[in-house]
Amino acid sequence: MTSIFTIENSHALWLILLLPLLWWLSSNTKTTLGRKHLRLLTTFRAVSLLAVILGLAQPIIRYGNQDISVIYALDVSRSVAADFIDKSLKWIDEVEERHNPAHSRIIIFGQNRTVVSSTEEAKSITIADFGKDALSSDSSHVEQSGTNLEAAIDESLALLGADHVKRIVLFSDGNQTDGSLLDLVQSAQSSGVRIYPMVADSAQVEDAWISNVRLPERVRAMEPMTSLVSVFSPSAASVEISISADGGLITTQSYVVKQGFNDLQINIRLPEAGSVPLDVLMTVENDPYLENNRAQISAWVEDKAKILYLEGVSNASSYLNEALSEAGFEVTVNDRIPKYDDLKLYDAVVLSDVLANTISSNSMKDIKRYVQDYGGGLIFAGGENTFGDDGYSNSILEDLLPADFEAQEKRKDIALVIAIDRSYSMKGRKIEYAKEAARASLDLLEEQHYFGVVAFDSQPYVPVPVEPVKSKRKAEALISRIQASGQTNIYPALGIVYRLLRDLEVPTKHVILLSDGDTAPAEYERLLKRMRDSNIVVSTVTIGEGGNPGLMRQLSDWGEGRNYLALSADSIPQIFTEETKKVVGTSLVEEPILTVMKQPTGSLAGIDLQSAPPLKGHIAVKAKDTAETILVTQQGAPLLTRWQYGLGKTVFFTSDVKNRWSADWVQWEGYGKFWSQLTRSVTKQLGSTTVFFSGDRENEAAVFNLTLLTEGGSYRNSLSPKLRVTVGQEESSVDMSQISPGQYRLVVPFIGQEAISATLEAGEDISSEVVDMAGSRAIFPGFPAEYRFSEPNLELLSVVASSTGGELGARAEEIFTPSGDTAQKRFALWPVLMTLALISFLLDIFVRRSSFAWKRLSS
Fold this sequence. Notes:
- It is a single chain.
- This protein is α/β, with parallel strands linked by helices.
- It has 6 domains: 3-63 and 828-858; 67-203 and 792-821, 3-Layer(aba) Sandwich (Rossmann fold); 209-302, Immunoglobulins (Immunoglobulin-like, Sandwich); 306-409 and 590-682, Class I glutamine amidotransferase (GATase) domain (Rossmann fold, 3-Layer(aba) Sandwich); 414-584, Rossmann fold; 691-779, Macroglobulin (MG2) domain (Immunoglobulin-like).
- The chain has 22 helices and 44 strands.
- Strands 19-18-20-21-35-34-33-30 form an 8-stranded mixed beta sheet, with helices on both faces. Strands 25-24-23-26-27-28 form a 6-stranded mixed beta sheet, sandwiched between helices. A 5-stranded mixed beta sheet has the order 5-4-3-8-9, with helices on both faces.
- Strand 38 and strand 39 form a beta hairpin.
- The longest helix is centred in the N-terminal third of the chain and has 22 residues, at 35-56.
- Mean pLDDT is 87; it is low at 130-136.
């Protein structure tokens, strides 16, 4: 082979210029030595100096070498079949004997590794089994519970013989649990190392295992949460998944899984706030390994969602309150809007049938700010108090809602009957005010409307028949003739009203009953039910508190109308006017309403709206252009609209939430689910916009990441956050390291099977508010990744082979043939030259000091 001579340090050759100086000094030195003697000594010195100078120049002779150095890296982890390990050792023996490489070593590896020089020595290595043998620092033990390909190949690169053609034969399935083999590819390329992977047979284990468990980053207590459990099964099978929290069983569900990976969705609720450890257990018949059938994960649970509920009808708040409370909300029923700072204590506000004049302008501004800037949610439900001249049209609150209140118009299809008690108890001012009230109601009607009056004492009669309003003056005259006399008997009067309205074909039939309620008992409930079946609504006005106000309230409940209390006679006309306005206004539509889904949404997923009973009324609104119209009536009128307003969301439900228009809905089994899911869809989003704290498991360590921002979104840098880390019974305070703008990290290695929990500590840079927003995280070590039995990672092995010039599954001849690869062997001349310099130096001393030597040399 061709040799190449090179000089590594040519600058040292300039020192050769010292040789003439050496001869000049020698010739000009006064000495007792003879000239020949001096010349010989100078020659020795010159040779010594020249040898040193040439040695400093580092002359090297290079020549080609095709001797092969090979490292056999044998994966003995749990995922590799045992017979493959035996076959691999036998193969190594055969190729060693046949090809006799100049240098070879064997690395036996799994989670750790050891180096041996022969297969006999390899067979003496103890392979530790997870759960039976602890990982030992003893080089005669290799742990099966993991596969660190990166560490094995890194050591192989270090062991390869210098100045040799370099080969690594990797026996593995390519399923690495630690490190990254691809990180070493470039290093192997630059070192001229070819890697030849031999695909290992996977351990033939018919074993199912839990691959992963995923939870939402943050959840609220008692909030339905979907956990995703990913399981691997070698074949189709029936499995049972159980989830426990703090040792208490939450749910057990059965599934039929297919061969391969399966994602199983399991809905759970966590009752308590804080860091909650969850234990997920899979049960499969005839499963050989139980270690991989269990997974542990921690959930950070916030407090229950807090709801502020204002109900316009005070005794009707129980329906929604109970539905939301049973669904896991913390509901506060109030009669006023608190100040903005107190409003921020709630995640959503529900306004149900609340009179507009009971909410001040400042309170409306606070609600707007609460939704727009704070991100709170608002649900606005309709009702008879939310329309009319005193409604929300052109208000601050209307600007916040996803729909506008439509302008008031007169209805064309109304039948109104006034039933007036004319008994002796009504004599005097009461009967006069009652007649004035009837005339006031008549005055609000138009010619196409139907109007009638029934007066009653012990017997009813009809002073004004039910017919279209044509001559108000005539009807007013008939009303004026009503006189007080006799005893009160309401039942036959309602019977007359029922017969008058029953067959009348108008969609809105309304009755206003005026009495003190002091009447004989009767089958009122049955009669009122027949009236409601004929779409007749009955409202009542109770005169004073001396009669039977309870009966009057009950009649309005059965008649699905409203009940008013007139404490003085002069208030009767005002009450009649208010009630008639409610009946006449078009924003109030009282008729059977079917619920039609217009735009499907996840917030109503799983709710069978086709089974929902009809609603009995709603207010007419017009959806805004950018709003979602989710539900409509059978005529296409908006029933449920929603939109994003700033950081928050608002919902407008145009019917009510109680036993008026939703009288049948509150009995419907979907009522609670409908309102709980809709409420959750608008509650303030969990988490913080300035603090992000997370934990995860990476290889054999728990990794905690913290991101801190200012309110303006800028990174908070150069801080010194600390975590209070708990491992078993040990607790310590540990500094986090900044890894990028605003981001801090702490890596804590697992010790055995103990969980690692971490909580941010308050300090100079970290306020207690930030600590509360961050919460706590707990990370569990989990079972060894080697118990995730799967197919060989051919993609990884192929990339490694092609990137380094090797070949997947190559024959021995291809591995041990240099194939044009030549290693440069170096022979450094400086040791020879330094030896020559030393010999010349010693001869110089010997000849100079020994007269005998000089005499012998001169002779």
